[in-house]
Automatic annotation (TrEMBL):
Annotated InterPro entries: Ig-like_dom (IPR007110), Ig-like_dom_sf (IPR036179), Ig-like_fold (IPR013783), Ig_sub (IPR003599), Ig_V-set (IPR013106), Nectin/Nectin-like (IPR051427)
Biological source species: Rhabdornis inornatus
Protein name from the UniProt record: Immunoglobulin superfamily member 21
PANTHER family in UniProt: IMMUNOGLOBULIN SUPERFAMILY MEMBER 21 (PTHR23277:SF121), NECTIN-RELATED (PTHR23277)
Signal sequence segment: none
Record note on quaternary structure: Interacts (Ig-like 1 domain) with NRXN2 (via Laminin G-like 1 domain) in a trans-interaction manner.
Length: 435
């Protein structure tokens, strides 16, 4: 004489209002109605609603004792704005007094599962392990990573190229060398095909982008590099990859993983790996799209693979003097570059001020420049898997009136005995005045 039923609920989206209805039938006398939220796999039940019939009794007017109607009660709990933390099972417990004795209570219950969905909050596409060296002379794998956060359940992620879906081979594990790019030693920059003499190019010594046996340039190129200190114009010198082209269409490999987050959402990661061909992949538009039941339309993020062009370099101070700290910084490019390039600084025809052959990073700092650096040329090479470009700037060092001419050492600082001479002269002057 007591039945409880709860209608199943369809999935709801975060922020929606939800009504939990507990329907029951009984011909007994009501004691209480209690709603519980069940957590930790059923081990913990949190009371969220209670109706005590001792203080508020609902009953039906019966014409005689033998003619009894089934009373229908309904207990409703409303959640105005559901959160992900509201996801889970709920139970409705109904208690009535036993017919034989009022000291006993008969219980019945029903349960329902509230499935709360959350649309993804962010999506981004990035290149794996950048910036990193990338060989211009052999084909290598390239990986795009799409990261989707904030969704529940895990979304469906897929890639497109120039607006067309990519048919990719699914991978349970990333291919060897695709998940990360191991550091690779680039050949000497002066071996770039745009700087090779026409005689060598015509003979096919660099055909199909094959590297030289060693990283050291041949003597002819080395001699040419040493003699170009003054002949390099102070303009951007663009360079391209060797023109090796794949005959077949690229084969794409796809991997999709997801990891639960503490707030109940899922972070999904999708990777797309293929053998990069700068000849056809430069300026190609790749997009990552997401389908999710909580989204009315797909969510997407897109990037265009582009080689760096025309770095913009600034030097501070603009009028450097002996002893100043000079900073040469790459502020940007004439185009949008993806993936992030790797910057390498060199001094044409010589080593850097600290004695190193090259320096990595967007900024080159020359501390306490000496007069010997006047007229020196600095080259910044910016490269990513799609190509590379060079730009040069010349350092002009003016005399510093605060430093007597000819007293600075090779580091632009005053010799250590200069201060001693000054103190000795001052002491002699004081002694002469006293006598």
């Amino acid at each position: 004489y007591l039945t409880v039923s709860i209608e199943p609920l369809p999935p709801v989206v975060v922020g929606d209002a939800v009504t939990l209805k507990c329907n029951f039938k009984t011909d007994g006398k009501m004691r209480e109605i209690v709603w519980y939220r069940v957590t930790d796999g059923g081990t913990i039940k949190q009371k969220i609603f209670t109706f005590d019939a001792m203080f508020s009794t609902n009953f039906s007017q019966m014409e005689n004792y033998r003619k009894r109607e089934d009373l229908v009660y309904q207990s409703t709990v409303r959640l105005p704005e559901v959160r992900i933390s509201d996801n889970g099972p709920y139970e409705c417990h109904v208690g009535i007094y036993d017919r034989a004795t009022r000291e006993k209570v008969v219980l019945a219950s029903g349960n329902v599962f509230l499935n709360v969905m959350a649309p993804p909050t962010s999506i981004s596409v990035l290149a794996a392990d950048t910036p990193a060296p990338f060989s211009r002379y052999q084909a290598q794998n390239f990986t795009l990573v799409c990261v989707v956060s904030g969704g529940k359940p895990a979304p469906l992620v897929y890639f497109k190229r120039d607006g067309e879906p990519i048919e990719a081979t699914p991978l349970p594990e990333p291919p060897a060398g695709a998940s990360s790019w191991a550091p690779r030693n680039l050949l000497h920059r002066d071996l770039d095909d745009t700087k090779v003499p026409k005689s060598l190019a015509a003979d096919g010594e660099l055909g199909m982008g094959n590297p030289f046996p060693t990283a050291d340039p041949p003597r002819g190129l080395a001699a040419e590099r040493d003699s170009v200190t003054e002949s390099i114009p102070e303009t951007v010198v663009s360079r391209e990859f060797p023109r090796w082209v794949h005959m077949a269409e690229p084969i794409y490999y796809f991997r999709h993983t997801h990891a639960p987050v503490s707030d109940g959402t899922v972070e999904a990661r999708a990777t797309l790996t293929w053998t990069l061909n700068p000849q056809i992949d430069n300026e190609a538009l790749f997009s990552c799209e997401v389908k999710h039941p909580a989204l009315s339309m797909p969510m997407q993020s897109e990037v265009t693979l582009v080689a760096p062009k025309g770095p913009k370099i600034t030097m501070t101070p603009t009028r450097a003097r002996v002893g100043d700290t000079v900073r040469i910084l790459v502020q940007g490019f004439q185009n949008e570059v993806f993936p992030e390039p790797l910057f390498t600084w060199t001094r044409v025809g010589s080593r850097l001020l600290d004695g190193s052959a090259e320096h990595d990073g967007k900024e080159l700092v020359l501390e306490r420049v000496p007069a010997e650096l006047n007229g020196s040329m600095y080259r910044c090479t910016a490269q990513n898997p799609l190509g590379s470009t060079d730009t040069h700037t010349r350092l002009i060092v003016f005399e510093n009136p605060n430093i007597p001419r000819g007293t600075e050492d090779s580091n632009g600082s005053l010799p250590g005995h200069c201060g001693f001479r000054f103190v000795l002269a001052l002491t002699l002057t004081v002694i002469l005045e006293l006598t």
